[in-house]
Amino acid sequence: MDYIKIRFGNILEQDNTRTNDTDDTLFHHTFNPMFSFSERLWKPHMDIFETPDEIIILAEVAGVNTSDFEIEVCEKAVKISGKRAEAPPVPNATYRLVEIQNGSFERILKLPRAIDTEKVSADYTNGFLKINLAKLAR
């Protein structure tokens, strides 16, 4: 089983203007798909849902190596970042469509309620990163 790094801290109080803004426009980067193979930011799709005991984050990040994930957790937010390596261009190929995003990504997700930072786990299976966060008792 591969190891996924999880760091604990106070994400919301970092001196970073991007931290407090989870608006999708923050992560929206347009690019001309005229087949630029330059590195760019991308935004993986994510779901957040709750069970009676925990908050679960599910991120669609196929092709990212577990060593390229970084997860930072505090009671109020989770920061998920990483990098998907670019597939080298095929020589003598004419690309007609390029939709697979690669490069670096970062998402900061505010949580619907406080979590117990002592009870956090992450798993990566079939291209999905799943983070389980135990809720604090009210």
Notable characteristics:
four-stranded mixed beta sheet; four-stranded antiparallel beta sheet; Immunoglobulin-like; 0% helix; mainly beta; 8 strands; elongated; 40% strand; 138 residues
Describe the structure.
This protein has strands at residues 6-8, 46-50, 54-60, 69-73, 77-84, 103-110, 115-125, 128-135. The protein is mainly beta and 138 residues long. The protein has a single domain, classed as Immunoglobulin-like, CATH 2.60.40.790. A hairpin with a 3-residue loop joins strand 4 (69-73) and strand 5. Residues 15-39 have low confidence and may be disordered.
What overall form do the CA principal axes indicate? elongated
Number of strands: 8
CA radius of gyration: 17 Å
Structural class computed from helices and strand pairing: mainly beta
- The CATH topology turns out to be Immunoglobulin-like
Mean pLDDT: 82
Number of helices: 0
The domain tally reads 1
What percentage of the residues does DSSP assign to strands (E)? Answer: 35-45%
CATH class: Mainly Beta
Low-confidence stretches: 15-39
Walk across the major sheet and give the strand order: 1-4-5-6
Q: End-to-end distance, in Å? A: 34 Å
Oligomer: single chain
Order of helices and strands: EEEEEEEE
Return the CATH architecture.
Sandwich
Taking the sheet with the most strands, its summary is:
4 strands, mixed
What fraction, in percent, of the residue positions are helical?
Answer: under 10%
